[in-house]
Amino acid sequence: MNKSKLVRPSNKNVLDEGAQKGKIFSVEIKEFDSIYHASGKRDALNLKVEFIKPNGDLVYLFYAPTITWSPKGKFMKMLHDLDKVPAMGEELDINSLVGMNVTATIENVERDNVVYSNIVRIQKRATSIPVKPSNEEDSEMMDELFNVDDIDFDDM
């Protein structure tokens, strides 16, 4: 290595802030340390989300809401946004989330002069509704149905 200059690499895992399209890559239940729980631990649903940067690089970010069935919690809000809230007494197959196309809201924070991207919300990506091809026969029937010229109002 005979270079006179060194290039400090940038953090490759930074995305632009705002809405970013991604895909849920993996899901697991994971235990994290927590100062907010008496046990010192919390169970979370840890989602690994894959994003593709404009240059083609893959970026993986995690979103790990604490598992709680409270309607005010991030976990239930996420399930609602993903259209995956199970009915009371029903199970949630967490593997059904894998492969789902999502829109994640990204916020960047700086710690010790390093910028990190965080997912602050994750939603099921809206899929476009396929347009039904027009049917000539349907159009003719609709024209006949709404053709007021054929109605004789004098006899009414």
Shape: flat
Low-pLDDT ranges: none
Number of strands: 5
Q: Report the sheet with the most strands, covering strand number, pairing sense and barrel closure.
A: 5 strands, antiparallel
Strand content: 35-45%
Identify the strand order in the major beta sheet: 3-2-1-4-5
Question: Span between N and C termini?
Answer: 98 Å
Give me the number of helical elements.
2
**What integer value in Å does the Rg equal?**
26 Å
* Overall pLDDT: 85
3D architecture notes:
It is a single chain. The protein is mainly beta and 156 residues long. It has a domain at 18-124: OB fold (Dihydrolipoamide Acetyltransferase, E2P). 12% of the residues lie in helices and 36% in strands. It is built from two helices and five strands; from the N terminus they run βββαββα. The protein has helices at 74-81, 136-145; strands at 18-33, 41-52, 58-63, 101-111, 114-124. A five-stranded antiparallel sheet has the order 3-2-1-4-5. The model has no long low-confidence stretch (mean pLDDT 85).
